Amino acid sequence: MPRAKHVTPVLRALAREIDGLELPAVEKISESSQEDPFQILIGTLLSARTQDATTAAASERLFAKAPTPQAMLTLTVKQIEKLIYPVSFYRHKARHVKETCRILIETFGGVVPGTMGELLTLPGVGRKTANLVLILAFKSAKNICVDTHVHRISNRLGWVKTNTPDETEQALYGATQPRWWPMINLYLVTWGQNVCRPVYPRCGECALVKWCPRIGVEQRGGMGRKGRMGGTGRTGGTGGTGR
Ligand code: SF4
Questions:
Q1: Shortest-distance Cα residue to atom 3 of ligand 1
Q2: Which residues line ligand 1 (CB under 6 A)?
Q3: Is the whole model's pTM more than 0.90, yes or no?
């Protein structure tokens, strides 16, 4: 696939524009834990389809009790459920957290593995989570983490024309220069949470508007249109959730 149009100016603009905006929850967990792979992995698992503030609070409660796989295994699934509630699917996620810790200890010597293949053997870990762990914890420059925000905005910008986040990830490797790959998630998730929202994107206030064909955007938010609800972009989204 040829390089998409306007990728470099858009990403340069985003690098400037996100300065001062609220960071995504897992980025904050990465910073506060000094890039601890275990806390990044568990924080990413908790963040799926969950508001960032909820993920941040749940992670703080959980890691205060159990900052390592060994400590987590001493908790029951019920205790983990209580600590992470109200993240979405908290019962499911609590089981995955416990099982992940058991596998980390029994198979990987108590540490988070640093390859895509190994990460994908962990319960609840898909490419999105694995890519984010590789980028944040292992400083990989060869991965793009695609969540619902990256999928939606890449399609709106016309960089890709895809139906799923996994398709978007593969398309973005061809459409963008490798130097941007580790940053694409941070830039587009931050933009998706603040400006290019799933419904009523704030196109009237968007610094990217001159490069953006707004593919699939039926109704816009922004200046003077606050409070109205309505159409979604073609690729849709999950409504302000985290990664
Ligand atoms: S112009 Fe609109 S659709 Fe395009 S990136 Fe900005 S908010 Fe999103």
A1: 214
A2: 153, 156-157, 195-196, 201-203, 206, 208-209, 212, 214, 217
A3: no
pLDDT of res. 3: 72
- Among the atoms of ligand 1, which is closest to the Cα of residue 206? 6
Average pLDDT, the chain: 90
With beta carbons less than 8 A apart as the criterion, state whether 59 and 85 touch: no
Nearest-atom number in ligand 1 for the CA of 156 is 3
pLDDT of residue 4: 75
Told to judge if 128 belongs to the known catalytic residues of this protein, a careful annotator would answer yes
Atom of ligand 1 nearest to the CA of 195: 7
Tell how far the Cα of 179 is from the centroid of ligand 1, in angstroms: 23
Low-confidence ranges of the chain (pLDDT < 50): 223-242
Looking at residue 222, what is its pLDDT? 57
